[in-house]
Amino acid sequence: MSIAQNLLSIKNNLPEQVTLVAVSKTKPVPDLMEAYEAGQRIFGENKIQEMAEKWEQMPKDIQWHMIGHVQTNKVKFMAPFVSLVHGVDSFKLLKEINKQAAKNERVIDCLLQIHIAEEETKFGLDELELDSLMESNEFQEMKNIRIVGLMGMATFTDNQNQIKKEFTHLKSVFNNLSSKNELQHFSTLSMGMSGDFKLAIECGSTMVRIGSSIFGTR
Ligand SMILES: *Cc1c(COP(=O)(O)O)cnc(C)c1O
Fold it and tell me: What are the residue boundaries of the Alanine racemase N-terminal domain, all occurrences included (predicted)?
């Protein structure tokens, strides 16, 4: 099947409230353009430089999502255009995004990444770090970022029960936070990739990040 066919068959089967991020990392611009021509406007990348190069070359109505781990010293390269940063996993990074957004006279939407997997290697905040971040005065005073939700990645495993447990946990952290805090735009729960997005949606995901099922293996 073509990229356009893959895209449309996934899109047509998503519930209405679930947003599709087409993860185009490592793929060339013509592949992305095929998805664009088929109607896709949200693309996810995991390297800032690659995302900036594609942004320059492609139509300006695309929303670029940064889904990977972000190095603080590279935030300035995406601050002019990025539409959502999924992987905010430290206060230091959030401060830098706020600073660079201010320089660009923008407000940048962010998701806080929560560590839900068993693997040590996956980035993210634990719940204590999350609480102390949300409750700090410094956070309250940041005017150029907006926390619109949470993101998480499940353990890389075939064990569906384990994945389900991790997604369910993230959903409950999300629910707690949205009831506890008066965050006005807190509505996005980014969880689910090619291998586990159906399960993620069952567990309450509102945004799925799908790469290989659209663009082929990397
Ligand atoms: C690469 C990547 C994806 C997409 O993975 P696929 O298995 O190709 O769908 C989703 N989320 C993140 C954070 C990624 O790095």
Answer: 3-217
Residue 46 near ligand 1, beta carbon < 6 Å: yes
Lowest mean per-residue pLDDT among 15-24, 75-84, 112-121, 206-215? 112-121
The residues, ordered by sequence, that sit 6+ positions from 197 with a Cβ below 8 Å of its Cβ are: 205, 208, 210
Per-residue pLDDT tens for 116-138? 998 877 789 999 999 999 999 99
Q: 104 lies in which domain range?
A: 3-215
Domains in the chain, number: 1
Q: Please work out whether the CB of residue 210 comes within 6 Å of at least one atom of ligand 1.
A: yes
pTM greater than 0.85 (yes/no) = yes
CA distance 83 to 85: 7
pLDDT value for 181: 66
CATH of the domain at 87: 3.20.20.10
Which of 23, 26, 123, 156 for mutating ligand 1's site (highest number of atoms within 8 Å of CB)? Answer: 23
Whether the CB-CB separation of 86 and 66 falls below 8 Å is answered with yes
